[in-house]
Specification:
7 helices
Length: about 150
Amino acid sequence: MILKLKSLIISLAISLGVGGLSSVVTKGSSEIYKGLNQPPLAPPSWLFPIVWTILYILMGISSYIIYESNSNIKNKALTVYITQLAVNFIWPILFFNLEMFLFSFIWLILLLGLVLYMTLLFYQIKPFAAYLQIPYILWLIFAGYLNLMIYILN
C-alpha cells in the first residue's frame, strides 16, 4: 500500500479533532475528576489526555487504512467508525458536564459495542486496522470500570 499523505492527515485530523473539541467542551473536567471519590486503580487526571491522544492517533491510522482499501464493506465500516466517534464525543459531556454518572456508564457500554462492531468490520477488511483498536477496547473496558465505580462511590 502506497502511503497517501493527504488522506492520512485528514484521517488523523478527524479523530484528533473530535478529541480536541471534546476537551474544549469539557473544560475543567480534570478538576471535576479530582473532586470525585475515586475507586481503586484510578489513574491521575494528567494521564487521560495522553492516553486519549494515543488512542485518537490509532483510530486515525486505522480509519486511513480502511479508507484506502478497496473493500465492498468499506463504507459500512467507516459509517460505524464515524458513529462511534460521535458517541465517544458525547460521553465526556454526559459524565463531566452533566454529571450523569449512571447514564454515562450505559452510554459507554453503547460505545464499547460500537467499537467492537467497528473492529470486527475493520478486521474483515484489513486485520492490522483492527489490531490497532485493541488498546481502545481495553481502555474502554477500564473506563467502564472507573465510570461505574464513580457512580457507586458518588
